[in-house]
# Entry
Amino acid sequence: IGKVERYIHEKLEREKLHFVLLDPDDVTPEEAAKIAEMSEETGVDAIMIGGSTGAEGEVLDGVVRAIKESSDLPTILFPGSHGGISKYADAIFFMSLLNSTNPFFITGAQALGAFQVKRYGLEPIPMAYLIIEPGETVGWVGDAKPIPRHKPKIAAAYALAGQYLGMRLVYLEAGSGASQPVPPEMIALVKHVIDVPLIVGGGIRTAEQARAAVKAGADIIVTGTAIEKAGSLEKAGKKLRELNRGIKGRD
Ligand code: 1GP
# Structure
């Protein structure tokens, strides 16, 4: 396994992790740089970069480069398709949207992007990506059949299948900006069934919600909207500290 994945595993032996997601379609390179810098100061563990719409090409490169210049945190691409690849990042979640109804999002985009990942020397981290209701933009764009919130067993079956297919992370995604995060009961059952680290994101806005997800069994919490849309950089900093406290369970 590569450097970033090893970093994740080593840190997980000591604590739960907090990844901050920045969508190049929503933040300027300057804002991204500032948020990355504050994230590092706060004790965030990595920056994810991506989005379902418009997070490509020069816009993506500009944001990744700005983040690299302002912080030493690992940068991990979180691509909506093969368009979401930048040579400036450290690693890429090489993800398959297992509950998509469209093979493009399961293996098609992956094939189209594979040579580029190799050429750029990006570290691929294989990940099972599962969309839970409501699913938001990524659910619609990814032609997903979102897993019902009250059906944790379906999520657990997909997660275990992902692990058996060789994926080394499982991500439960309620969708960016979801009105409610993934239910704790679902997180708990998935965690009970799999052996690989579990990432949870979508709609986590408060320390309490982040704490609940961790208590249920999430290993890594992803927060995006709550920080990006905080209203000002000062408020974003405050939100970062609040969420990080909830995840790390300390002040
Ligand atoms: C979205 O899970 C991430 O892909 C983060 O969601 O923007 O709601 O924090 P939020």
Observations:
- Residues 3-248 form a domain with the TIM Barrel fold (CATH 3.20.20.390).
- The chain has a mean pLDDT of 97.
- DSSP finds ten helices and eight strands in the chain.
- Strands lie at 17-22, 46-49, 75-77, 91-97, 123-131, 169-173, 198-201, 220-223.
